[in-house]
Amino acid sequence: MTQRDPPSSHVTRPPARGLGRALLRRLPLVGTLLGLALAAWLVATNDLSAVGAAFGRIGFAGLAGIVLVRALIVLLCGLAWARLLDGLAPVGAGAFVVLRSVREGINVLLPVASIGGDVLGGRLLTFWGVTGALATASILADMLIQVGTQALFTALGVALLLRLDGEPAAALASWMMHALAVAALVLAAFFAVQRAGAARWVETRLAALARRFVREGAGADTAGPPGSGVQAALDAVWHGGRRGRLAQSVLLHLLAWMLGAAEIWIALACIGIEGVGLAEVLVIEALSQAIKSAAFPVPSGLGVQEGGFVVVCALFGIDAGTAIALSLAKRVPDVVLGLPALLVWQNIEARRAVLQPPGRP
Predict the structure, then answer these.
(1) Which CA distances in Å does 300 have to 35, 144, 149, 176, 356?
(2) Where in the sequence is the domain holding 67, given as residue range(s)?
(3) 25 domain-assigned
(4) Would you say residue 23 lies in a domain?
(5) Residue 324 · residue 306 · CB < 8 Å
(6) Single pTM value for the model
(7) 58 within some domain
(8) In a domain, 16, yes or no
(9) pLDDT tens, 119-160?
């Protein structure tokens, strides 16, 4: 009787982990295709001449004002990020402002999900001597505060929206309140994991992400808090003795979200739309940004942002052509500020490669 060979220990199994990574890599591509399809539908169903006429009335001066407002928003967000590491890393606020602009440029101009620039921003921060663990912790905390303050800003928009009469406004407000309830649960869980370190496996996986996406910078051995893990770095960021710095970061992010309404006001004033006051502008900005953020897998909210403007602006009698022109006006700073930011990123990488000691990874 012929003896069968024992089963090989190298039996091919479904590469579940590899499949998951492949899906994550393709997520921005799928989002891009969906966004392009939505944008094409909006173009096909609306009068392009009306969009062009409304956009043309904004003019160079209006667009310049919008770009200046966006630059101020990026500055505020960079300062908010810097407050999180004040006293923990010997890095000036200027570096955080520069890297914040890089984060924004990557997120709005490259085909990545809306967190791709944030991950890379953490890696670049290590070039200033911040440990990989502390850089990762700062990104996680900054993203949590940013999303949390956006939820507060959206809640303000919903509260103002509830003052309007009509079924469309009531339906949109109801949908937004349900979305805010879900977001609140997710944010609370995310904060609990960061603040309390609910289980050891969380730290292990965060550390693995840090090793994968964030390389240690030069001189990092002196820049971090006690402890080498990401959880220890998160504890240092969220420590009770730093409440003043955390409160400043929250206020700066809130101010940045509210300042975004100035972009809408400038564009509407240039187009010549009357009867839209501060409350209406805040609603348009808050809800359109919330809709865009909900579609984070779509790079730069392509198509989604325009659709959100059409839906929200219709509540105030603003036609679809003008709404799309508003969205296009808000994309001008993405390009004007984003392209230089990408060049800065490449310059940082090039300088790092030149200064890198031979044989160091």
Answers:
(1) 9, 19, 19, 21, 33
(2) 31-355
(3) no
(4) no
(5) yes
(6) 0.81
(7) yes
(8) no
(9) 899 999 999 999 988 998 899 999 999 999 999 999 999 999
